[in-house]
Fold each of these.
Amino acid sequence: MSSIFDKAHAVKEATRILAQFSITAPPVPVEKIAKQLGAILQYAPLDDELSGMAYVKDGHPIIGVNAMHHPNRQRFTIAHEIAHLVLHRDYITAQVHVDKAFTLKRDPVAASGTDALEIEANAFAAQLLMPADWVKQAFATELELDDETALSVVARKFRVSTSAIQNRIMQMF
């Protein structure tokens, strides 16, 4: 990537956070991680296209989460906002960073490579919630992406959506 942002660095940082808090199996306790990093979590009903936000006020990191979204989506939002706190603190200290709806899929903005902060935060969140090694271990046999039963079981184990686990698998191979 030609910018100062780097997906590999994001993955490395997410892996470091897991090790720092001795997390070795899913589901990853993202709320606990956020709190241990000093963040205040605030849940509020927001417009559907707003997933969350992160900012630092008076030296205290705050993560806002859309209370109207599914708990699995909230978990991804928290992981994504933790990424902004860990990787982009200087950027979010200067202003509130609001995240419109995002997925693990590359949306048109992400696909164009123009929003490096979001691409990096999504890579961090995916690794934090679904570390590649854990996902590989979760499937005892060769995985078919259309094996809905296996995907559903693993998604429940990680407390993510089936589409999130499918997207994660596609990113890994």
Amino acid sequence: MESHIFGRSTAGSLPVAAQGDGCYIIDTAGKRYFDGSGGAAVSCLGHSDADVTAAIKGQVDRIAFAHTGFFTSEPAEELADLLVEHAPEGIERVYLVSGGSEAVEAAIKLARQYFLEIGQDRYRVIARRQSYHGNTLGALAAGGNEWRRRQFAPMLVETSHISPCYEYRGREDGESAFDYGQRVANELEAEIERLGPESVLAFIAEPVVGATAGAVPPVEGYFKRVREICDKYGILLILDEVMCGMGRTGTLFACEQEGVSPDIVTIAKGLGAGYQPVGAMLCTGKIYDAIAAGSGFFQHGHTYMGHPVATAASRAVVKAILGRGLLPKVRDQGARLKAELENAFGQHPNVGDIRGRGLFLGMEFVEDRETKAPFEPKRGIAKSLKKHAFEAGLICYPMSGTIDGARGDHVLLAPPFIIDDAQIDEVVGKLDTAIRAVF
């Protein structure tokens, strides 16, 4: 029967997901797929968590929806309390939305309104090349993913993009990792000076870069220098943890490992673990107080923000991450998965880099390991890897354009936090099957 769904692609038909079983998705034909990327780093608890589904059912029985223009709700209040209790220093308020793009839009608009409330007409945002911050027009403009930006470029608000912190590609011979990080961080100061400090309101960055570059972690000291520069010019630091946050890198907030606190942080994906569409923008008390002492109204909003069922699910998810010892498990199993990837592919002639943090790992593919030369885009390496892995029963997240939006290929792995040792072997084995088929 012909489908009336307007899907992501008009080519071909997809299997129908019928059931979830821990780390697996089962289609209507009975085939089991190991969810090695958590969809898009979403399904951190797997697909059949009894506590989360019970929380959803219980909330639906009480009240499913109450508009936040009229009411708050118990699960929303408790989720906000829980997040602030474990948030970076200074973060005091939680703005609940339905996904990552909404969270980033809210963050950028709040940054703009904050400066207006304190009497400064700042409007420029600085971001990084090879970043991704969402698909709505404001978030897309902030992002540095050229492939996603290209056709919408005339509609995007002007945003400056500086170099990413991408050690594998950017660090020069003889340059220490620390010095490299300081060099690319200092590009932020140069860009602020070029634009005029009085016009710049925020710098936005992913602590560990996700889909666009494949789990690229910063070098030590990079974000501390970024924080210093933002403080020097009175600019807000927005950290986008939509993909890398909520335990994915081994701490609840990824920025904990950098020793910095943002002014605004965005979360989604692992916040709801896929059980409900949800996201959040968190900000400092200083920003909230400026609104409260000024207009008293954040000129923004969505119908489903603070949704009781979504926040009940999220509250259960965050309690599970914190209460079941999953953060140390992410660190331990992440280290084991990375070691197994290095054992299997560390000397492969077409694997240039294996990187990441916790259960957020990436492999970059090259035509030549010595020169780091990428494959020609027409080879379609990422697309082919996805196809062969899926046929082998592994869901992973390959992407092309790793280097500059056109060249380079990588695969991103972000399995559920409940992955066991045998399943790590399964992921590596199925990935090996795909890599052998492609190369």
Amino acid sequence: MVIFSPIMINHKLKIIDAHSHFFSYEWFQHFCNLAGPHMPELTGPEALAKKLGWEPPSSVAEELGKRWVEEQDRYGIARQVLFASKLNDAEPLAVAVHAFPQRLIGYVMIDPTHPDRSGREQTYYSINLLGMKGILLFPAMHHFHASDRRVFPIYEEAAAASVPVFIHFGELSIPIFKKLGLPDNVDLSFSNPVDLSEPAREFTEVNFIIPHFGCGRFEEALRVAGEFANVHFDTASSNSWIKPPLTLQEVFKRSLEVLGAERILFGTDSSYFPRGWRSDIFERQLQILEAMQISTQHKQLIFGGNIARLLGIAF
């Protein structure tokens, strides 16, 4: 196994990871509660972490935030976007972000089908009270179309606050559900990027981000991004959806042709320790872009400049 050092991955680029996950102590406890009826051995987050082979997170949110900042320092990363995968995960993430405001940036997942809290209420609370800087939507998980009018109040709040909206389309796998024997209730009929066309047309001031190059719905994602200049791609994860003869280099090539370097955001999908920050993802993507002879200026946009511009932060 190759171990990448901070020197190897620096390459004189200023890096902002636009896609990673926080997975707080409260997030672990949530899954203990879900799996508890048929897995009584999951007595708490520490027991769940042991089952997963992960390092248990600190119950103190600032300590988990510090863990990610130390990881950034190790690899020479400037900043990092961290996702709260549930609304109750956003509250500890907010604590961590406030402890390290120059290093950590928080996004929160919103469920527009929530029976008790409207999408607008969840979004307003997350942005204006918790200080989240981006909204996450997972149509296949929560069973709604991105074009559903129920979702438009979320877009309206995002527009008012000038925060991006990240929407997962294409394949969706949630490994922890499988490991715990829980139903994930994923319905891929809600996962077509073409559903984004109406919102992108109506909310031209909102920057929409499609992760993983569309995650198996690449052609549809390209079609939408080609039509709407406020649609962006992120490059996160190993992109295992790519099958021969398609290659990640070809995906980058076609994405650059359609979106240009200005609408592609680097991400790793880093999520847990001890694995930590996924330098292997960075190395592979950088090697591909260098093989394509992409200019240093355009590489800098992809690896940090674009997400800094969308978030309105100094770079």
